[in-house]
Amino acid sequence: MAGETYTKSFAVLKKGGTIISMLEQPNAELSAKYGVTALAQMTQVTTARLNAVADLVKSGTIKVHVDRVFPVEQVKDAFMAREGGKVRGKVVLSFR
Prior knowledge:
Blueprint: H1 2-12, E1 18-21, H2 28-34, E2 37-40, H3 47-59, E3 66-71, H4 75-83, E4 90-94
Parallel strand pairs: 1-2, 3-4
């Protein structure tokens, strides 16, 4: 599924934009076809790095589209929604 999402993303990216994947290696052919820059980002996940990303989201530097929020008790429903393919954006579990 990740490869399919990566490939489809080129068609919706603005010319001159940048696509960064943590799962796929850059695709030079698609990059040239759509006039975008393709990069790969491999990162060792640490608490400090996750906090830095959270700070970027809080400041508005990174915008995240949340499609739906599920309480943790409905984790099965969250996975079913995501796997159903009708989700546009992130599915979030709420731990309250």
